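User: Can you help me understand a structure? I only have the sequence.
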Amino acid sequence: MGHPSPSSLARAALLLGWICCGLGAWAQEARWPHQPLHLVVGFAAGGPTDLLARSLGKRLAQDLGQPVIVDNKAGANTIIAADFVAHAQDRHTLLMGATNHSMIAALYSHQIHFDPVASFEPVCRIAATPTVLVVGPDSGLKSLQAFLDQARSRPGELSYASPGLGSSVHFAAEQFSHLAGVRLNHVPYKGAAPALADVMSGQVDASFASLGSVQGLIQSGKLRALAIATPTRRPELPALPTFEESGVHGYSADAWYGLLAPRGLPPAAIATLQAAVRRYAQSPEALAGFQSQGLAPALLCGPPFAQALAAESRNWSQLAQQLHLQNP
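Assistant: Let's start by predicting it. Here is the structure, written out as tokens:
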């Protein structure tokens, strides 16, 4: 029997190298994550999305054995953060998303270079918080009925602040205006902090904020709440009536918070993330944090979350058309 030729040995060595490289890549993917995770937040530090991201990141680091770096890329109604994650190539960059994400297509579809639904793998929705109508502490408005009376007597004069055009606050306010039959003056800001600061000082009359962003301000007396968009009163604010019992029927405007990954993250990595998020969302420390921040558990993972995100995106786009909301 003859000896293998040099060319045969070379081909065998090359094939063995390919096999080893393939096995190495497979093993690396199988141990995902194999480098630090980059958790991007589309809001400034200190808000409910950021606080939830840092709490989740701490648990993910413990469970997955890799550091989690929270990166605040605020601005452009969360579009900057979403664009960054949609185009990430390292398979270790994630997005701490919120309701704003499902609203991007409604007003910005011609200005973005990603699809808010198709460019992402929805991992899990984690928590939700209802909308609260708030006014400044020195406002003469003491009830939702007083707010409505003034809005109807001065069409287009009563103002509300939002973190920006197309934000969840903007849509919540316009949805309310449509249901209540009033016309309000929208004053957009470049973030929630300056918007709420001007409501507290009386520069703007009101805001339709998420409970998670204003619960502490309400409890400290820096803002006065007039109504909350929940079926029943919340135990944290038992004296605060719902919109329903105050006469505005069918108004619902919850804000959600959840984890998304760029499209193409391997199914095994998605499953690893989902398991870790479930453990986090059901943990006593997470539940205690939710309560202190005005959040409620709203765990929804995988295809059901993906379907909900797609449905919301369609609904917000239809609402924008129905209410003639435009991006100037």
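Now, to help you interpret it: DSSP finds eleven helices and eleven strands in the chain. The first helix runs from residue 6 to 30. Let me know which part you'd like to focus on.
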